[in-house]
Amino acid sequence: MSEHLLVRACRGEIVERTPVWAMRQAGRWDPDFMKLRGGMDFYEFSATPELAAQVSLLPRRFGVDGVILFYDITTLAIAMGMEFTLEPNRGPVPDRPIRSLADADKLVARPPVDRYGHVIEMLKIVQRELAGSLPVLVFASAPFTLASYCIGTGKNVTRTLAFVQEQLKTWELLSDRITEATIEFLGTLCREGADVYQLFDSWAGDLPRPEYESWSHRYQRQILAQCKSTPSILFVRECPYLDLMAEAGADVVSLGVRHDLANARARFPALSFQGNVDHELLIIGTPDEVRQATKTCLGQGGGRRHVLNLNHGVDRQTPVENFAAFVNAARAE
């Protein structure tokens, strides 16, 4: 079993210090990333294992307690047979959105491993470079969020639900295909040596509760139940349904700022939590304000069953000194 601080905290063990990492810690907020990427297309860049590995490793210089691989949640959909373009202010946009049952039926539920071989190669490069010094995190999108990108609605949950109502059979088939592919994808990466995985269902938190149960929660449960060999983290951006997140089967639940960390720990003492410093504070605050907020969060976390993180990913406008203050405050405790 892994003895890494982050992995032990995910397992709920007593740790000497709360581990820290951040979603999107490797990305466009970091000037060193922008230098490496240059003018390359995002998907071309992320599919080049040597470059993606270098980017994944950049946050080491700040002292984070884990390295998350650099790729996109649509990577799996591409392996299943889709193509995407990353558009400014819109995110991933499918070249040919799923519009019918026939479209969904063309997607490969168990894509050959070589279709995402660049992720496996990146994992191996990062592992060689780390030589056991830090754990490696991988991730995948839960079906609701990935299917939303596949039909071209993205974060617009109202449009997504309209599609579900009009094309129920298509949506069900698409969700089932993504579920099967995600289980295979995460299982492969964990067998290849990933230490922790995070399941993102970023936009599902905007669903009404009945729809959340139908189109998000039940698929989360399927995936988490099938991927038990490696500690798991569930992330749903600012999800109001903490009880359902707690029941999904993840080892760690990632909290938004709408939830009080200390109250969540008291309510679910057998569960580990991740979060929940406000990522917006890292954009607009001073380093001192970031340090104070981080110390407050650590106090609420109680030093056990807590992985320090943000409520969302590091924003592109985040000053480097604020990210450094966030990590340094954790390591100073």
Write up this protein:
By secondary structure, the chain is α/β, with parallel strands linked by helices. The protein has a single domain, classed as TIM Barrel (Alpha-Beta Barrel). It has helices spanning 5-10, 31-37, 42-46, 49-57, 75-80, 101-105, 117-130, 143-150, 157-166, 168-191, 209-226, 242-247, 261-267, 279-284, 287-301, 320-332; strands spanning 67-68, 84-87, 91-94, 136-141, 196-200, 232-235, 252-254, 272-277, 306-310. A 7-stranded parallel sheet has the order 1-4-5-6-7-8-9. The chain has a two-stranded antiparallel sheet with strand order 2-3.
Quick summary of this structure?
With 333 residues, the chain is an alpha/beta fold. It is built from 16 helices and nine strands.
Q: Secondary-structure blueprint of this entry?
A:
Elements (H helix, E strand, L loop, with lengths): L4 H6 L20 H7 L4 H5 L2 H9 L9 E2 L6 H6 L3 E4 L3 E4 L6 H5 L11 H14 L5 E6 L1 H8 L6 H10 L1 H24 L4 E5 L8 H18 L5 E4 L6 H6 L4 E3 L6 H7 L4 E6 L1 H6 L2 H15 L4 E5 L9 H13 L1
Parallel strand pairs: 1-4, 4-5, 5-6, 6-7, 7-8, 8-9
Antiparallel strand pairs: 2-3
Helix pairs in contact: 4-7, 8-10, 9-10, 10-11, 15-16
Number of domains: 1
Q: How many DSSP helices?
A: 16
Strand content: 5-15%
Structural class: alpha/beta
Q: Indicate the CATH topology.
A: TIM Barrel
Q: Which stretches are poorly predicted, pLDDT < 50 over at least 5 residues?
A: none
- Report the strand count: 9
CATH architecture: Alpha-Beta Barrel
N/C terminus separation: 26 Å
Helix content: 40-55%
Mean pLDDT over all positions: 97
Strand order, biggest sheet? 1-4-5-6-7-8-9
Give a quick account of the main beta sheet: strands, pairing sense, barrel closure: 7 strands, parallel
| Helix and strand run | HHHHEHEEHHEHHHEHEHEHEHHEH
Rg, nearest Å: 19 Å
**Overall outline:** globular
CATH class: Alpha Beta
